[in-house]
Predict the structure.
Amino acid sequence: MAFAAITYDVKPGYEDELSEIFRGFRRVRSADVPDGTGEQAGRILATAVFIRDDTLVRVIEYEGDLDAIARHMAEQPGVQEVERKLAPYLTKPRDTGTPEGFVATFQRSLLKTVTQLSIRDKPNG
């Protein structure tokens, strides 16, 4: 299992409004993420959103292909709705209106993974 984190540059002072947008998030019907042929390419295991001042971060725990995860998210009505509602609060516009634009924005917003540790990991040695 892996984690990915993407950032949003938001206007400070709107933490409550931004929190409300995510409180109303519509989850996807299935955690399974198909590839272009309909085969399973991954699974979204969990998500979390954090905010402080002018930075909002979405963390995704997933299995499989992260590009497939991003493409899958781009097509989800709940994700599209959140992206539309976030637009007025962004300091930098995000081109997320198309799957291609969403995936490109996702990749640009992705934080570099420094380390990932889990109790599920077996210790070395």
Remarks:
- Residues 9 and 92 are 6 Å apart (CA to CA).
